[in-house]
Structure formats: C-alpha cells, structure tokens
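Milestone M4 deliverable, item 7.
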Amino acid sequence: MQKVDFKKELKHLYTPTAKATAVVDVPAMNFLTILGEGDPNTAQWYKEAVSALYAVAYTLKFMVKKGEQALDYGVMPLEGLWWADDMSQFSVQDKSNWRWQAMIMQPEFVTAEMADEAKTQVLKKKGLTAVAQVNFARFAEGQAAQILYVGPYADEGPTIQKLHDFIWARGGQLTGRHHEIYLSDPGRTAPEKLKTIIRQPFLDPHSNLPPAKGRESDSLSLPGRGLG
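Output delivered:
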C-alpha cells in the first residue's frame, strides 16, 4: 500500500525554521473547516468543533485507505485563523470576543461528496452533532510570511511582532487573517516545547504575484492567541 506524507511533500509550507522568517506562496488547497467564537481556553464549542474536525478527517483517511485508492496518508495538523470583528477591542486579557476558524487541510483527491459521507458516518457512529457545522472548502492565501515558534501559546507575541516587522520592513501590507498551524499535541507536549507555525499573508509592492482571494479576507494584526 502506498503511503504519502503531505507534510513532507509540502515541506516549504509545513516545516519552516525558527531561525528566520520565510516568504512562501501558499496555493489554493482544500480544507475541512468550522467557525466559532469565544475564548478557546474555556469555550465548550471550541473543544467540540476541534473534535468534530479530527473525527471527520480521520474517517476520510480510513475511507481512502480502505477504498479503491488504497492509499495511506497522515492526517494534517490543526490550523486556525484568529480575529475579532472590532480589532480595537481585541485583547489577550479578554478573549470572549475572539472569532476563529479551525481547519485541517485535505488532499486533492478528497472531494466534497466524500466529506459529506464521512460526516454522516461520524454522526451515526459517534453522535458528534458538531459535525453538521463542518464544511469542505477551498482556501487560498497567496504570498505570506511565516516562521516556526517554539514555546507556550501565551508567549507568541514577540514572534508575531517579529513576523510583522519583517513584512513592514519590505514595505508590505498585512492582509488576510492571522494564521497558526499546530504541529504539537498540547495534551502530550510540555508548553515550552510546543511547535507552532505562525503565518501572515501580506501584499508586497515589489512582487508580481496577485493577491489571493481566500474565503476570508480582513486586514488585521493579532497577538498570540494565549492558549495554555
């Protein structure tokens, strides 16, 4: 049986270094997504939403493995977009007004119809009602800057500032939403060893690349989400 590691195939997107900020061109990709709001540390919906995402993602993995394609692949890491409707009120001290979109990237051969079937299976077998809110969507970011951060979620702030300073030093403009990719399981990893990719889409006046048209597009500047 063929095995595929998409993190290795997309190494430039999912294995950055912590030593330097990199500029990447993020292509349009398919994702399982779910929306929510509120403090991710305390909001029950965040826990339910993430559980539903993983349940559908793993069901799809085994559907492909046992199906005609007979292909085995690793489920991709959890990703998150973070923002607030009124960024002037955004605060790490009060996360109650935070909005978020949790996502897990899907291989190109996974279709919306397959995702619907996986959702049906999860609802039937596990009774996770949150799966009804899981969507299958294509998301594009285009040009972005990213860096690997290692440490507690609550201490991301200086690294995010470093990322933004890098963009501004190029004459760039922040666009899109603050994006984090979680490479570590916080339930099994010490806070000081947590690995998180921090990514920020931006417009570069020196680039010939057109701005990506993602499903979500608001300019903002976020500090770390302060989980943990």
